[in-house]
UniProtKB/TrEMBL annotation:
Organism: Oryza barthii
Any one Gene Ontology BP term: sulfate assimilation
Protein name as annotated: 3'(2'),5'-bisphosphate nucleotidase
Cross-referenced InterPro entries: DPNP, Inositol_monoP_superfamily, Inositol_monophosphatase-like, Inositol_monophosphatase_CS
Chain residues that bind Mg(2+): E146, D208, I210, D211, D357
Length: 420
């Protein structure tokens, strides 16, 4: 959610909340998370003025995360992957708590989007916290994340800052892994951990704390690790996504378990598991080689991709199936597990794509045996900083369809005057 505007955010995250609410009358939202019940054993030094604490005793030290079988065998990033999974799972729990809070409050306002803002910042703080606590020690911690604290430091943001602080602290207490308590200043400082510029050297975590903030029902917490300019792991928590097929719009049958966690590490393949922790299963892209049999995913929001253009590309390819439109990088997960053949996006303006909108999703597709390219058929370069230097479109599909899709896209773009 680019630059969360305090108290003024529209979102698929919030749409998802309202969509599942039975109330259709006027809503007013008051997101006051229940007051934090601090365990009595927390000493005052856990109030953090500026930064995270280190565990002060063995009891407070984080439990080591267990790697699953597929992570353990020959995976050089097994520890980082376990930390990343823990981070997005905890962040997803915070987001789900906000959803539940709104649903239970009964009276809600579509105009008041501050809960989404609270969840967005809260998610970023928790991911940063877990990575710092769990990932193997390194000389420096660098995170390229969507949000910063600028809006929260402005006059009028006091209440929302308090809400974020309460919600984050409560989530940490409920989880029970860390004896950590954030002050408001600690919250602001933690958000600004995400201000790194990324780039081609060193290690950088790349985070979209809530991806998919407009339109439909899906959203994702998307986290990747960039190592010397290459994405080496990615995790995607999709709290509203059914674990069943995503081929029919916005989820599978009602009996399916909801809440998916996709993950991939370079050279080790891609997996999906339930956010609640079911055994992970290997996933792979479909093997469709005739575009007539293909289906495609695109943004739920019309403003995010040129639908006239994608309609024309689909026609050139002879695609029969109607588009499946969902928010967020859940689309990458859907292609990675073969629910559909193609995900594409062609921005209206030549606006730059943010690195956090593609880093996690793209490795999940490539490790599932697929390809992710720009509209000219070039690999994405995610080492350019906070934004990609390509701006003419992104395509994720299998190796059979990619050349055909690129060719059709080039032709359609020329016809539409998008390419010279
Ligand atoms: N006009 C626009 N064109 C293309 N992408 C846009 C856009 N406005 C916002 N986006 C990006 O599209 C993302 C959502 O992706 P999708 O369209 O696949 O659901 C947004 O992420 P956030 O929701 O994190 O802001 C945002 O980064
Ligand atoms: Mg995003």
């Amino acid at each position: 959610m680019a630059a969360a505007r305090v108290g003024l955010v529209s979102s698929s995250f919030s749409h998802a909340l309202h969509a599942s609410s039975s109330s259709t009358s006027t809503f007013t939202v008051s997101l006051r998370p229940p007051r934090l019940r601090l365990p009595p054993y927390l000493p005052r030094h856990h109030l953090l003025p500026t930064n995270y604490p280190r565990p002060s005793s063995s009891a407070a030290r984080p439990r080591r995360l267990r790697a699953t079988m597929s992570q353990a065998a020959g995976n050089p990033y097994a520890a980082e992957l376990a930390a990343a999974k823990k981070a997005v799972t905890l962040a997803a729990r915070l987001c789900q708590a906000v959803q539940k809070d709104i649903l239970q409050s009964g009276v809600q306002s579509k105009a008041d989007q501050s809960p989404v803002t609270v969840a967005d910042y809260g998610s970023q703080i928790l991911v940063s916290l877990v990575l710092k606590m769990e990932a193997p020690a390194s000389a420096s911690f660098s995170m390229v994340a969507e949000e910063d604290s600028e809006e929260l430091r402005k006059e009028g943001a006091e209440e929302i800052l308090e809400n974020i602080t309460d919600l984050v602290n409560e989530t940490i207490v409920d989880d029970g892994t860390y004896s950590v308590f954030f002050s408001k200043e600690g919250i602001l400082s933690a958000i600004d951990d995400g201000k790194s510029e990324g780039g081609p050297s060193g290690r950088h975590w790349v985070l979209d704390p809530i991806d998919g903030t407009k339109g439909g029902d899906q959203y994702a917490i998307a986290l990747a690790l960039l190592d010397e300019g290459k994405v080496v792991l990615g995790v995607l928590a999709c709290p509203n996504l059914s674990l069943g097929s995503i081929g029919n719009l916005n989820g599978g049958s009602s009996g399916d378990q909801v809440g998916a966690l996709f993950s991939a590490t370079i050279g080790c393949g891609a997996e999906v598991e339930s956010l609640q922790g079911s055994p992970a299963q290997k996933i792979s892209v479909c093997s469709i080689d005739n575009p007539v049999d293909a289906s495609f995913f695109e943004s739920y929001e019309g403003a995010h991709s040129l639908r006239d253009l994608t309609g024309s590309i689909a026609e050139k390819l002879g695609i029969q199936a109607p588009p499946v439109r969902i928010d967020s990088q859940a689309k990458y997960g859907a292609v990675a597990q073969g629910d559909g053949a193609i995900y594409w996006r062609f921005p209206h303006k030549r606006s730059k794509e943010a690195v956090w909108d593609h880093a996690a999703g793209s490795i999940i597709v490539t490790e599932a045996g697929g390809l992710v390219k720009d509209a000219s058929g070039n690999d994405l370069d995610l080492s350019k900083g906070r934004y990609l230097d390509r701006d003419a479109g992104i395509i994720a599909t299998n190796k059979y369809l990619m050349p055909l899709v690129v060719k059709a896209a080039q032709e359609a773009m020329k016809e539409e005057g998008i390419l010279g």
